[in-house]
Amino acid sequence: MMIAPLYPGGLLEIQRANLRALLRHLYREHGTWIAVAHLVSFRRSFVLAFCDGTEPGNMALARSIARAAGLSLDDALAGKAPPRKALSLVLVAPRRKGGAS
């Protein structure tokens, strides 16, 4: 049995936890909270308040996080992992042994 959120448009605690995990993933991928805030189109202070639990968040934030992570809203709320990016291959020229050529 699923427990309903306290207000319409609200998020369940498990959904909030899944969205916080996606935000941490975006932070590891992009390096700064400012970059994450730009990706989700919310203020950095709001994003950080949501991450530390002082802000309950809303469906608009959930949709933005899902879009930034490349997931559907349902997958993001369910805790699915974001799609993996292909590793970029760097071709390195072989070093020659010996002296001048």
Task: Write structural notes for this entry.
With 101 residues, this protein is mostly helical. The chain has a domain at 13-77: 434 Repressor (Amino-terminal Domain), CATH 1.10.260.40. It is built from 5 helices and no strands. α1 (13-30) crosses α4. The protein is elongated.
Essential attributes:
101 residues; 434 Repressor (Amino-terminal Domain); single chain; mainly alpha
Radius of gyration over alpha carbons?
Answer: 20 Å
- Mean residue pLDDT: 85
CATH topology of the domain at 13-77: 434 Repressor (Amino-terminal Domain)
Number of strands: 0
* Overall morphology: elongated
Uncertain spans: none
Largest sheet: none
| CATH structural class of the domain at 13-77 | Mainly Alpha
Write out the CATH superfamily name of the domain at 13-77.
lambda repressor-like DNA-binding domains
List the helices and strands and how they pair.
Elements: H1 13-30, H2 33-40, H3 44-52, H4 59-69, H5 73-78
Helix pairs in contact: 1-4
What can be said about this structure in brief?
The protein is built from 5 helices and no strands. With 101 residues, it is mainly alpha-helical.
